[in-house]
Amino acid sequence: MAIISEVKDEGAKPSASSSPEPKPTSFVASFNPSNVVGFLEKVFDFIAKESDFLGKESVDKEIALIARVATDKYYKKKAEEMEKKKKKEEEITKKAEKEPTEAGGKDKQTNPNLRVPNKGNGLDLENYSWTQTIQEATVIVPVPPGTRSKSVECQMKKSHLKVGLRGQPPIIDGELFQAIKPDDCYWSMEDNDSISIVLSKQSQLEWWKSLVKGEPEIDTQKVEPESSRISDLDPETRLTVEKLMFDQRQKALGLPASDEIQKQAMLKQFMAMNPTMDLSNAKMM
């Protein structure tokens, strides 16, 4: 349920010649996340009925500004969540490295050393290799030449992968680093000597450190996404990835991040649209 009402400016002083201020009017409507546009239509219908706001010459610019601010807040929240998760992982790793585990009080690293990713941003292991993009992971499992598809056993569940040949111990059998979308995953035989498996990631906003939990992990800070791969992403994911990459470069150079740059630009634009308002000390949160 959404309720929107006008807010009375406590700092405003009524004048004798001004007309009486309109009474706040409540707006009540149910919000269905699957029909956001329908909700917005109701909001604008209500505004049109109760005020002359939509008749202003600058209404398009003001609405666009509101939308840009809201969008910026959305992506800022996404970036903060990822940064928070990254910092938490770094803290856990540092704590594990400093924790004394030997009788002499010497520090011993409990986590395996992170490995440098292969050219596909994955890792080449003894029994299989894997690569990844921000959207999916691809696994290549070598098998004896002449192997047919009917001899292959491949089970792709939301959080588990099992691959092998019938009558033999599985080559891969473990919990995936993160969840996948089984309905969008598939496997095939390549040249009758390897099994190719494509796993569609459920979360397409971060890199996997390993294919299966417990296997050697890669250093995701050394992942190098190709420009061509970024261009293949859907608009929302691509915008998030490019924003994170830009902010990372800005941070390394000691420069303002994208959200700060955009906020300053929007503040200047709003001041130009409302020259009579004193926003010299305004800060955008």
From TrEMBL:
It comes from Gossypium darwinii (Darwin's cotton). GO terms for cellular component: cytoplasm. InterPro entries: CS_dom, HSP20-like_chaperone, NudC_fam. Residues 1-28, 78-121 are annotated as: Disordered. Residues 1-12, 78-109 have a biased composition (Basic and acidic residues). Small heat shock protein required for the establishment of auxin gradients and for patterning of the apical domain of the embryo. Involved in the specification of the cotyledon primordia. Also required for normal inflorescence and floral meristem function, normal developmental patterning and thermotolerance. Acts as a molecular chaperone. PANTHER family: NUCLEAR MIGRATION PROTEIN NUDC, NUCLEAR MOVEMENT PROTEIN NUDC. This is CS domain-containing protein. Keywords: Cytoplasm. It is found in: Cytoplasmic granule. Residues 123-212 form the CS domain. GO terms for molecular function: unfolded protein binding. GO terms for biological process: protein folding; response to stress. It comes from the Eukaryota.
